[in-house]
Amino acid sequence: MLIRAGSPGPHRFAAGAALLLAFVAGGLAGCRQHAPSPSAGPVGGPSARQRISESAAQVASGATRKIELDDVEVGDDDLKALGDMPALVELRLPKSRITDRGLAHLAALVELERLVLGETTVTDAGLQRLGKLSRLKTINFQTSHVTDEGLAHLAPLADLELLRLGSSRIRGPGLAHLRKLPRLKFLILNSAPLDDAGLAHLAGWQQLESLYVERTKVTDQGASELLDSCPKLHLHW
């Protein structure tokens, strides 16, 4: 269901809806929501490492500042090929399956602004590592194992604008940590165990422009109450 701000009743429409949808759609590009496939076997390998190494060489030469491999299955060990690449601004690996161990290889990417990964099992510990990459503007994980407590690790990310943690373990209380982020406008928490009580932690947060809570426990009543307190919010549930 889609609820926007503007017109009477619980289904309200925002004047800037198209612009917001375009922004969020860009952040979601390459990552379609579906259940993790733990039995699919290992990913990555020589081919993935070679492709990442070739892309890293392009960054090192100054030819580009981003790595985008939409057609390569990437695993934790493949990320070692990134090495020390402070010039990298965007890393987009939508077919990756990354754990906390893989995120450790990103520690040197101090200029990174946009990070898009596929089926991750990243936990709170992994999010703590990302909290040290202070230039991040986009974190987009198709799946994760992040909990409410882990959201506190994002506090240093003052430039963060879009956060997607699909299939997380977030129930709601930890959302209070996100309200401390001065630029966060787009939040995607689809398939989380979030209910009306959890959603209420976002009440009155006028800064938030677009919220996706599809496939959660949020009801009509909870959505309506949130919109009453955030009349300009663009809500998808």
Protein traits:
single chain, nine-stranded mixed β-sheet, 237 residues, elongated, 7 helices, alpha/beta
Q: Can you characterise this structure?
A:
The structure is a single chain. Strands 1-9-8-7-6-5-4-3-2 form a 9-stranded mixed sheet, with helices on both faces. It has 7 helices and 9 strands. About 15% of the residues have low confidence. The chain is α/β, with parallel strands linked by helices and 237 residues long. The chain is elongated, with a radius of gyration of 18 Å. The longest helix is centred in the first third of the chain and has 16 residues.
What is this structure, in a nutshell?
The chain has 237 residues and is of the alpha/beta class.
List the helices and strands and how they pair.
Blueprint: E1 2-3, H1 17-28, H2 46-61, E2 66-68, E3 90-93, H3 100-103, E4 114-119, H4 124-130, E5 138-143, E6 162-165, H5 175-178, E7 186-188, H6 196-199, E8 210-212, H7 220-229, E9 234-236
Parallel strand pairs: 2-3, 3-4, 4-5, 5-6, 6-7, 7-8, 8-9
Antiparallel strand pairs: 1-9
Structural category: alpha/beta
Percent of residues in helical segments? 10-25%
- Strand count: 9
Helix tally equals 7
